[in-house]
Amino acid sequence: MAFQRVASVSDIPPGVTKVFEVGDRAVAVCNVSGDLYAIEDVCTHDGSSFEQGELDGCEIECPRHGARFDVRDGSATELPAVVPVDTFAVRVEGDDIEVDV
């Protein structure tokens, strides 16, 4: 595993989620009030992307069936999902957002 640059800090303002390909994985980077979190971009309920999902505080909602996940630790917080999503370490180096996948 190694940190890889995905975006600039200005690319993901607070309340926004953006999806990036990092290696062979799709990763959703979420800005929660200035804190950045990265989760695998695959809803564990049905495999949908979070790209069109709504970020509400620390939770992201899958746009397909409404499953919700805590972006801080990947835990499923709302049915129909019960399995957590993978999370990844995020760091900021200067203006670069980097994710460890």
From TrEMBL:
Transmembrane parts of this sequence: none
Domain Rieske: 4-99
Top-rank taxon, per record: Eukaryota
CDD domains reported in the protein's UniProt record: Rieske_RO_ferredoxin
Pfam family, one: Rieske
InterPro entries in UniProt: Rieske_2Fe-2S, Rieske_2Fe-2S_sf
Keywords carried by this UniProt record: 2Fe-2S, Iron, Iron-sulfur, Metal-binding
SUPFAM superfamilies per record: ISP domain (SSF50022)
Entry's Gene Ontology molecular function annotations: 2 iron, 2 sulfur cluster binding; metal ion binding
Cross-referenced PANTHER family: 3-PHENYLPROPIONATE_CINNAMIC ACID DIOXYGENASE FERREDOXIN SUBUNIT, FERREDOXIN-RELATED
Record's protein name: Benzene 1,2-dioxygenase system ferredoxin subunit
